[in-house]
Design goal:
Number of helices of chain B: 6
Largest sheet of chain A: 5 strands, antiparallel
CATH superfamily of the largest domain in chain B: [2Fe-2S]-binding domain
Largest interface: A-B, 36 and 40 residues
Low-confidence stretches of chain B: none
CATH topology of the largest domain in chain B: DNA polymerase, domain 1
Number of domains of chain B: 2
Strand order of the largest sheet of chain A: 4-5-8-6-7
Number of strands of chain A: 12
Oligomer: heterodimer
CATH class of the largest domain in chain B: Mainly Alpha
Helix content of chain A: 25-40%
Number of helices of chain A: 13
Strand order of the largest sheet of chain B: 2-1-5-3-4
Mean pLDDT of chain B: 97
Low-confidence stretches of chain A: none
Order of helices and strands of chain B: EEHEEEHHHHH
Mean pLDDT of chain A: 97
Shape of chain A: globular
Strand content of chain A: 15-25%
Shape of chain B: globular
Radius of gyration of chain B: 16 Å
Strand content of chain B: 5-15%
Structural class of chain A: alpha+beta
Largest sheet of chain B: 5 strands, mixed
Distance between the termini of chain A: 55 Å
Number of strands of chain B: 5
């Protein structure tokens, strides 16, 4: 690890004030410290935000939930309100990492975790995300974990989170505070940036801005599921995952929200697919059509082309599960 | 960096570089070498300790972030003449071969049983709201953050099952 200055902040104002000139916030640290040991990341200062009062889960007046940025993944998955009203989120959290990591990893940190692209991790390799302008060895390389949607000629990395995929299907928004104490809220659909020519810029967060909470809208009368396919039964990143939230009325799908993990640089959604399904009665033919539409614009590499048929099957299976009976 | 924390019930004062992980502080500064360094990247679980009652990977945490925390390591769970129930169960069931992962396995299992008592579901739980059964599938899933290169898994699972059954009476 490259030496850094360590500062423990007592308030959000102190934290955002300290987050200048190459500083990084640290909360759980499970991803950041790993990357610092490898010198993939080398912040000049760590601003420890663990003492901030951001660890609560509260009901909102609108019937939703406000999840503090420091709520640990295990506490969020174990919260009775999340288990009963947002099971897709509990399931996604439980499908990620290990018991030890979930005890430490936070809500805000999970949103901001970095890709597990092998080339990003290997400092002997060029990588546009780690070292802007140096090139991308993943393109044409080993791409089993890589994206098929939203990629560019500069980067094909995936966002690794399960939690964020569920939050995208739930239309979460992210509360952010700046160093002047101003708070703004950003829809998760607007929070992540596509790689384009600047894959090192991953979100709309400005320097010094701190995530303070994630807001979930009321769940409504929805059925929810999270289905994840990975290379081993536990403790592995998604090859493909689907978070589904469906509201049924009179045998038809009144409202459909589908988010996909392991396939894009951000939790992926496709409005056309949802529009195709909404208002219709579930059927195998319709699901097949939706799955075909989802992958129509996929851009694959030799090593990740398997994700196209896999994603279609996982989507059909998830829709079957959500609409049966 | 000066840090005060409690380790196995004893107040300890550390004065270490900010880069010092909790794992290195325990092993090198406090000479508690029961906690093992395996991968040093949070993938193997050999460094698992309890912090304020919860299991974490001590390799992925800085010692200076633990001001005021209560740490329990394998040494704090029991000693040769007064083993914890899980330590005894690992011995009875031969839940190891080389033993390198064992301190992490036992610390992890200790906290994992508390997590089940608290009603936390897991990825393999059918019902998110019901208290989970302690099946082999549940144990394997909940222990997936601890790797055993000797592959003593069947005996590890049996050891954990026995300790849990005894606690339930």
């Amino acid at each position: 690890m490259i030496p850094f200055d360590y500062q423990r902040a007592a308030s959000a104002a102190e934290a955002t004030g300290l987050a200048r000139d190459g500083a990084t916030f640290i909360a759980g640290g499970t991803n950041l410290l790993d990357l610092m040991k490898l010198e993939v990341m080398a912040p000049s200062r760590l601003v420890d935000i663990n003492r901030l009062d951001l660890g609560g889960i509260e009901d909102t007046t609108g019937g939703g939930l406000r999840i503090g940025a420091l709520v640990r993944n295990s506490d969020l998955a174990g919260d009775p309100r999340v288990r009963s009203s947002y099971p897709v989120l509990a399931r996604a959290l439980l499908a990620g990492a290990s018991g030890q990591l979930r005890n430490k990893a936070t809500t805000g940190g999970n949103l901001l975790q970095r890709t597990r692209c092998y080339y990003f991790y290997d400092t002997a390799m060029p990588c546009n995300k780690r070292e802007p302008g140096s090139g991308c060895q993943a393109i044409g390389g080993a791409t089993r974990l890589h994206a098929i949607f939203g990629t560019s000629d500069h980067c094909i990395a995936t966002h690794p989170s399960d939690m964020a995929v569920a939050m995208r299907a739930l239309d979460a928004s992210i509360e952010i505070e700046d160093s002047a104490g101003n708070r703004r809220s950003v829809a998760i659909s607007e929070f992540y940036r596509l790689p384009g020519t600047t894959p090192h810029i991953e979100t709309v967060l400005k320097p010094g801005e701190l995530i303070t909470a994630v807001l979930l809208p009321p769940p409504g009368g929805t059925r929810q599921a999270y289905r994840k396919v990975r290379d081993r039964a536990s403790y592995a990143f998604a090859l493909v995952s689907v978070a589904g939230v469906v509201e049924m009325a009179d045998g038809r799908m009144k409202r459909v929200a589908l988010a996909f993990g392991g396939v894009g640089p951000q939790p992926w959604r496709n409005a056309e697919v949802e529009a195709l399904l909404e208002g219709k009665a579930p059927s195998a033919e319709l699901f097949e059509q939706a799955a075909g539409l989802l992958v129509a614009k996929a851009r694959t590499q030799a090593g990740n082309a398997f994700k196209v048929p896999l994603l279609q099957r996982v989507l059909s299976a998830t829709l079957n599960e959500l609409t049966k009976g | 960096m000066k840090t005060e924390l409690t380790v196995n019930g004893r107040r300890e004062r550390l004065d270490a570089d900010a880069r010092t992980t909790l794992l290195d502080a325990l092993r090198v500064h406090l000479e508690l070498t029961g906690t093992k360094k395996g991968c040093d990247h949070g993938q193997c679980g050999a460094c698992t300790v309890l912090v304020n009652g919860r299991r974490i990977n001590s390799c992925l945490s800085l010692a200076c972030m633990h001001e005021g925390d209560e740490i329990v390591t394998i040494e704090g769970l029991g000693e040769p003449d007064r083993l914890s129930d899980l330590q005894q169960a690992f011995l009875s069931h031969d839940g190891f071969q080389c033993g390198f992962c064992t301190p992490g396995q036992i610390c992890s299992a200790t906290a994992m049983l508390s997590e089940i008592e608290a009603g936390w579901p897991s990825h393999v739980s059918d019902d998110l709201d019901r208290t989970p059964e302690l099946s082999s599938t549940e144990i394997s899933e909940r222990m997936s953050g601890n790797i055993c290169r000797c592959s003593a898994y069947p005996n590890i699972v049996e050891a954990i099952k026995e300790a849990a059954d005894r606690r339930r009476g």
